[in-house]
Amino acid sequence: MASDQQEHLVDQRQPEGQEQPAVAKMPVTAPSRYSSRVILKTILNRNDNGLGLAGERLVIGGWVKSSKELTKEEPVKTSDALVNAGTPTDFTCAEVIQSRIPFLRTIIKVFGGQGNNVHDKLHPFMAKLPQPKIVYLQISDGSCVQTLQIVVHSSLVPPSQIMFTGTCVLVEGILQQSSVKGKRVIELKAERILHVGTVDHAKYPLSRKRIPVDELRDHAHFRARTTTVASVMRIRNALSHATRTFFHNNRFLNVEVPIITATDSEGSSEKFYVTTLSGHQTKMKNPISMDDAASVTLRSVKASIAEKHRQVEELMRTGSNKEAVAAALQDIRKTDDLAHQLEARERLRADHANAKTNEPNVSNDFFPCETYSTVSGRLHLESYACALGNVYSFGPRFRAERSESKKSLPEMSMVELEMAFSQLEDAVNCATDVLKFLCAWVLEHCSEDLMFVSKRLDSTILDRLQSIAVGSFEKISYAEAINNLKKDTGRKFDVKIDHGIPLSEELQCYIADEIYKRPVIIYNYPKEHKPFYVRVNDDGKTAAAFDLIVPKVGTLIRGSQNEERFNMLESRIKELNLPKNQYEWYLDLRRHGTARTSGFSLVFDLLVLQATGLNDVRDVIPFPRSFGKACN
Amino acid sequence: MASDQQEHLVDQRQPEGQEQPAVAKMPVTAPSRYSSRVILKTILNRNDNGLGLAGERLVIGGWVKSSKELTKEEPVKTSDALVNAGTPTDFTCAEVIQSRIPFLRTIIKVFGGQGNNVHDKLHPFMAKLPQPKIVYLQISDGSCVQTLQIVVHSSLVPPSQIMFTGTCVLVEGILQQSSVKGKRVIELKAERILHVGTVDHAKYPLSRKRIPVDELRDHAHFRARTTTVASVMRIRNALSHATRTFFHNNRFLNVEVPIITATDSEGSSEKFYVTTLSGHQTKMKNPISMDDAASVTLRSVKASIAEKHRQVEELMRTGSNKEAVAAALQDIRKTDDLAHQLEARERLRADHANAKTNEPNVSNDFFPCETYSTVSGRLHLESYACALGNVYSFGPRFRAERSESKKSLPEMSMVELEMAFSQLEDAVNCATDVLKFLCAWVLEHCSEDLMFVSKRLDSTILDRLQSIAVGSFEKISYAEAINNLKKDTGRKFDVKIDHGIPLSEELQCYIADEIYKRPVIIYNYPKEHKPFYVRVNDDGKTAAAFDLIVPKVGTLIRGSQNEERFNMLESRIKELNLPKNQYEWYLDLRRHGTARTSGFSLVFDLLVLQATGLNDVRDVIPFPRSFGKACN
């Protein structure tokens, strides 16, 4: 746009409800509030598929999904039409001339008679005049699965500019009934090309059709232009909205937990440290940073060695006996060894001093103690539950797991909540309600996308979502789960099934997928299998925790009632050898006004797997991060 | 709870709408779905302030805000009443006996006549029987500003257990009309104490009333129990919900941008690095990590020195001439010097190799290139806008600024959006609409909390929110802004006002607070003042960026139209000396199907300042992080 237009920002939108001046007829569909274009969904997802809008003039923007070209003999357009075609602002000079060629042809025909050879004589550079063509573009703008067909005459723009998959176009035209019989009822007849963003077809990675999702992972910044990934992201968005709707309806307050934390919420060691010292800085630092006393020692030892060498030479020069010289040489060697040892010890000492945590950091880092990217927000949420009642958080959590897994990445989205004055059963009920609500929501609000993914990815998706939304979940204790696995002779596991073994993801999935064939809640685990903050049951052996496992997806939710008794919590921290000072603030909650709380974490990305039929979380996260891989 | 109750998880809730059995009368207010308690807001925020619920039996949970105690002569309760009082489960044995003392007194009176001295003779340990007392507790559960009065007879629980501020109680009782005339119309007469979480009054940091907000910052895990902070957090929650409602209504899709990134979105150097090497690990690593060739060299040199020593000894032993021995000694010394030099060089080489970025990292870090906690998500959002149209993200962003500021912390919440097929004016319009919508929303939905903060924190808050919601904003270019500042002789600034100077926060605030006294949008800045991705205007000097400054709060929103032209963007990256390889994927968006996009970032925490009248973001963020301070 010309700078004079931008010099004065004028809000040219009509206040809602007001009619635009008669010169530009007001469309039945309104343009998006922050763009001149009309969103495709508002046309195509109407009951009449847009047919009632035929005759409307509007602007459509989007990306080419596919195209075809027909060569037609047709009357050459008048110059008016060509002028009205406007000057595309993003074309090179050659392209502008090309678009004018039909006009020039008209002039030549009028003045120079028919036939191409006349053109050749008169205008050598016009030797190969392109035949008029009609281009049919299938355009998507990411608002729905369906595409809109746009009919573009080659007089408006050279087909080569717009035909390739991935090309961006902004087009003004008139909606008309589809010229081609079939499932499409409406199309746009282009009158002006307002913008073209071309594609380097040879290099564009998404030129082919139906690229498998695993190949798309390498092109995270483009892949949402494919129908599959766009559907997945719309479903993801719907689930995100539904989650927050559930909490809002149930009077949960949203509380942001800190991402940078010094509290290790699960006592795990797989953490990402957060520091302002870059790798360059931490390693370039002189590893031999010696304090005064030690450096004096080492320097004096080295000086002593130099002196001893001189003494030996003096001995030699003055003809001293060989025993004296030999003794002196041995002495040099020992002193040299000592020097090496001192140097090594100094390096260790300096490293150790800089590595101490919770003390003023001499190394210039931003915070005085070690800080991590948070693994879980539940501890912080508890403190807010013990003031505001029901609270939740929904955001990124981090785990530096070096193993490759389709269900787990270093950075994932988690939904966490804590409820005051509630117990294990309440957390289980809430988890059940959340899952059912979300499945019902996506069935109701994402039917077009679900139809698409059920055809393209997983034909069982609708049935599975429905059965979770309305069916019952199995609830068994850990002890019952072990018994069931023992009784099940149909399958061999890597471990011997016995009470006390950890219920691995594999075992849990087997229980849900094969034994019960529906979501399963397992509760009352051995306390050793669960984090320190889980309330120990009265039997002293089990802990009030639960996992909710969904067939095909795995452990979607992990929850617990939290230990509200100060003495019990303090013992657990000691028992597990956790650094107590890190948890003083958390113990404080038990010292002063402790309440029974319970809550859970829901792995949001697994929920999106659940609702799309995909198997790998890298396909449902906008920009997935993997161990050992560079990222953008 | 007894373990047998937890062994079988049974959902004891009635499906919504069903009547509970007649034995327990169904309350008019329903308990919270995941707790036995009724949320106070559902009682106190009724039109009749809860009066119509008198006679209802229900459970209330919360924390004591204040209390008072009255000693009363009253008929001693019957044993039935005492039995019905139940056994509080969290008391020590001594407390249980104490609660039974009135019952024992009854027995003594019946059998032993009237008068305390008789008690003394019969039961020495009962020499000091406590007088019956009535305790009036003001309880808050975090759902609203108002508290509920609970009347507790000391026969139920010793007053010292429950009276202190911060004590947690869960109480079953009957709602009754308030016994005390005043603004309270309803109170709960306690019948059973179900839970008490006591407070160590001497150590509890929130014992006093009306602690100033800056003192509360040191107690982030408790401070939401104060009415002020609870109101602030409820307003924050409402703004969060309103933000997402706005985007949902306007067809924006929520897209999570990565927190761990290798893309520096603003070319700034104040970043937090993310690594799996702890300070301990990075420094404990042997700084002399030598490759094979170099280590062989050093080892062979050291072996050679040892050999030379032996040779000298042999020379001595065999009586060789002194010149030979002297020469041998000199040789040893030189070789030893060489060994030291080699060692030092190896250390430097190893450090240098490990500090290189974008190359396979030999140091065992998680990702092969340097990764940061993201400063801004707008670049990643753009790629999704160029596929899905309108997208937004709402989450934590990080800036390792070492300066102290009331408006800026290392970790803050940002709302960011990008819109395809839109320009600068569209982004400005959207920013204006968002701000107005949010102010109008909080005025409509948070009246009780706003009334409270307007009395406690800032009496102008309601007017200011109203004027933003309905008033107009000033829109001026950078050039006009400079002219206005020059013309304004009423104030001296630290810098000379001239075209080309950066518009600091101070200058921007002056324009909004003093010159226009309402929100101001300044646009078309000199291109040097704005990030590399901002579209350069046709004048070649200014960039299509804007800032939205709100009086008292500062620069709330920063936005721009983005450079969609490949050549221009590439030049800017080169001009600013940015590492081009980091931005290849971003340049790709211009190579293939570029669209005009615009967007902005909104500093959510400043919005909460705006809506609460506070001045320091540490008072509106649940767990604020500050430079140089330890955190939990």
Q: Could you explain the architecture of this structure?
A:
Chains A, B: InterPro entries: Aa-tRNA-synt_II, aa-tRNA-synth_II/BPL/LPL. The structure is a homodimer of 632-residue chains. Chain A has 632 residues and is α+β, with helices and mostly antiparallel strands. Among the domains of chain A are: 117 residues, OB fold (Dihydrolipoamide Acetyltransferase, E2P) (Beta Barrel), CATH 2.40.50.140; 199 residues, Bira Bifunctional Protein, Domain 2 (BirA Bifunctional Protein, domain 2, 2-Layer Sandwich), CATH 3.30.930.10; 56 residues, no CATH class. In chain A, 38% of the residues lie in helices and 18% in strands. The first copy, chain A, has 20 helices and 16 strands. Chain A has an eight-stranded mixed beta sheet with strand order 6-10-11-16-15-14-13-12, sandwiched between helices. A five-stranded mixed beta barrel of chain A has the order 1-2-3-5-4. In chain A, β14 and β15 form a beta hairpin. The longest helix of chain A has 34 residues. The two termini of chain A are 31 Å apart. Chains A and B meet through α1, β1, α8, β6 and β7 of A and α1, β1, α8, β6 and β7 of B.
Strand order of the largest sheet of chain A: 6-10-11-16-15-14-13-12
Low-pLDDT regions of chain A = 1-7, 16-27, 74-99, 112-124, 280-296, 354-362
Largest sheet of chain A: 8 strands, mixed
Number of helices of chain A: 20
**CATH third-level topology of the domain at 231-271 and 375-472 and 560-619 in chain A:** BirA Bifunctional Protein, domain 2
Helix content of chain A: 25-40%
Can you tell me the CATH class of the domain at 231-271 and 375-472 and 560-619 in chain A?
Alpha Beta
Largest interface: A-B, 172 and 175 residues
The averaged pLDDT of chain A comes out at: 82
What radius of gyration of chain A results from the CA coordinates?
Answer: 36 Å
Annotation, overall tally of beta strands of chain A: 16
